[in-house]
Amino acid sequence: MKNLVFLFLFVFCQSTVFAQQDPIQLNDSAMSLYKNDPQKAVLILEKALQISEKNKKEFQIAQSKNNLGIVYRDLGDFEKAKQLSSEALLTNDSILKASAYNNIGVVNRNMAKYDEALRYYLKALDIYQAKQMKSEIATTFNSIGLVYSYNGINTKAIEYHLKAKAIFETIENKKGISEVYNNIAIIYANDGDLEQALDYFKYSLKIEETLDDKKGIAESVNNVGAVFYYMNEIDSALVYFRKSLAIEKSIGDMAGISASYNNLANVLIENGRLKETKTYIDSAMYFAENSKIAVDIEVALDNYSRYYEAKNDTKTALNYYKEMVVFRDSLLNIATNEKIAELEIEYQTEKKEKEILSQRADLAEQNLSLNEKNTQLLGLGVLAAVLTLLGYLFYSQQRLKNRQLQKENELKDALVKIETQNRLQEQRLRISRDLHDNIGAQLTFIISSLDNLKYGFKIPEKLSNKLKNISEFTTTTIYELRDTIWAMNKNAITLEDLQSRISNFIDKADLATENIKFEFNSNISDIDRFKLSSLQGMNLYRIIQEAINNSIKYSKAKHITIDFNCNDQQIKVDVTDDGKGFVLEHTQLGNGINNMKKRTQEIKAELIILSKLNQGTTITITV
C-alpha cells in the first residue's frame, strides 16, 4: 500500500511539474533526449501537446505533433509518424513546415515510396535554401543522396552526399559528417569495395560513440557487422549484429530490431546453424509488419525460403519464395526511377527560372538607371546625343548577351533531359538483361531439371503429371518474362509492334488448339504513326491475350476473331468468339476478367463485355 501511495504522489508531482512548464521547453527537453530514450520523449511531447491544445496555441500544437512524428519515425511506427507531421503542415511557420516535409520524406523513403520521398525533400530544401539554414540544407542533401542510392543511381547519390559533407565540415557538425561517411560506405559496400566500406563505417562508429548517440551507434555497429559478414568473418559479424540488436531493443526502435533479427538469421542460415534461426526470422517479420518496413518484410520472406530450403522442405521454401517475388514486384515499380528523374528536372528547371527572373530584375534596374541618365542628358546638346547613342549601344549589347544566356540555359536544360533519358534507357536495358540472364536462365534450368527427372527415373503417374504442370507453368512464365523484357526495352510501342506480338501469339494458339479457327483483322493505314507508352502497350497486349485464352478455355468456340480499329482519338480492339456464351449478371467473375479490368483502369481505358447464351461473346477494349 505504501508503494502505491508513493507511486501516486510521484505521478501527481510529475504531472504538476509538466503543467507548470512551457510547451516549447517541453519540446526542447524531449528532442534533446529522444535518441537515447524515445519512450520518455513521447510522454513529454504528448503532455506538451495537451497543454498547447488546451491553450489553443496553433504553433505549439504543430511543433508538438511534428516532434512526435519524428520520434515515432525513429521508433518504426511510420504510419503514425506520417500522420502527425502531415497535420503539422497546417502551420504558417515556414521553418516548422520544412521540418515536417523532411520527416514525411524520411518516412516515405523507409516505406520504399522513393518518388514521394524526393518530392517532400525538395519542398523542404526550397525553404531551407531561402532561409540559408546550412545544417538543414546539408541534412536534406544527404537524404536526397539516400534516395538515389536506394535506386542504384550511385553517381548522383555520391554527388549529393559530398555536397552535404562540405557544408557539415564548414559548420563542424560531427553528427552530420558521421551520417555522410556512413551513407558513402554503404555505396562502397554495394560496389564490392569492402575494405574501404569498413574504414568508413568504423570512422562513423567512432564519431557516434563520442556523441553517445545510441541510435547512431546501433546503426554503425550493424553496418560494421554487415561488412564482416560480406568479408566472410562470420564470428565477428554475429558479435556486431547481436550488439546492434541489444542497443535497438534498449531504445525500442522496431525498424532497427527487425533489421538486426534478419541479419542474424541470414548469417545462421548460410552457416547451417538452423536451430535458433526460425525464432529470429519470426521476430524479424513481427517487428517489420508492425512498423510496415517494406525492405525488412522482403528480407524476412527470403530468409524463410532459404531456411526451409536448408531443411530440405522444398515445398514450403517455394511457397515463401513466390510470396517474396509477389511482394517485391508490388514494390519494384519501374516508373519510380522515371518519376525521380522528372522531379530532379523540375527542381533544376525551377532554379533556372529563378535565376532568369533575377537576371530580368537586374536588367530592369539597369534600364531604369539608363532612362534617368538619358533624361538628365537631354538638355546638354551634342554631348547628350553622343551619350544617348552610347547608352543605346550598351543596351543592345546587354540584350544580345541576355538572349545568348537564355539560349545557353535552354541548351543546358535540353542536354540534362537527354542525359536523364539515356540513363533511364541504360537502367531499363540493365534490368532487362538481369531478368533475361538470371531469372530466364534459372527458369530454363528448372524446366531442364524437371525433364531429366521424368526421363531419368521411374516416377508414379500422379507425380509425373505434377512435374508436367510445373514445367508448363515455368514455360508460361518464361514467355511472360520475354513479353515484359520486350516492353521494357522500348520507350514507346507502335501499333505495328503490338499487332506483330498479337499475331505471333495467335499463331502459337492456333498450333496448340484443334477445331478452332483464328482470324486477325486490321483496317489501320499509316500504322507507324500510332504509338503507345510501354505501360499502355504491355497492358493492352495482356488484356487481349487474356481475352483469347478465356475464349479457348471456356467458350467451346469454333471461330475466334480479333479486330483492330483506330482513329485520331482512340484505338479499339474487339475479341469475338461464336462459343456458348454466358449471362454476365449470373456468372462469378474469375481472376482473368478481374485482371483485365484492373489493367484497363491502370491505362485509363474502357472494357466492355457482351455475351449471350449460345450466341458467343465479344470483349471490346478502347484506349
TrEMBL record:
Catalysed reaction equations from the record: ATP + protein L-histidine = ADP + protein N-phospho-L-histidine
Domain Signal transduction histidine kinase subgroup 3 dimerisation and phosphoacceptor per the UniProt entry, residue ranges: 428-489
Residues in Histidine kinase/HSP90-like ATPase domain copies: 539-622
Residue runs in coiled coils: 333-367
TM spans (from-to): 377-395
Occurrences of domain MalT-like TPR region (ranges): 113-378
Protein's UniProt name: histidine kinase
Organism: Psychroserpens ponticola
Lineage of producing organism: Bacteria, Pseudomonadati, Bacteroidota, Flavobacteriia, Flavobacteriales
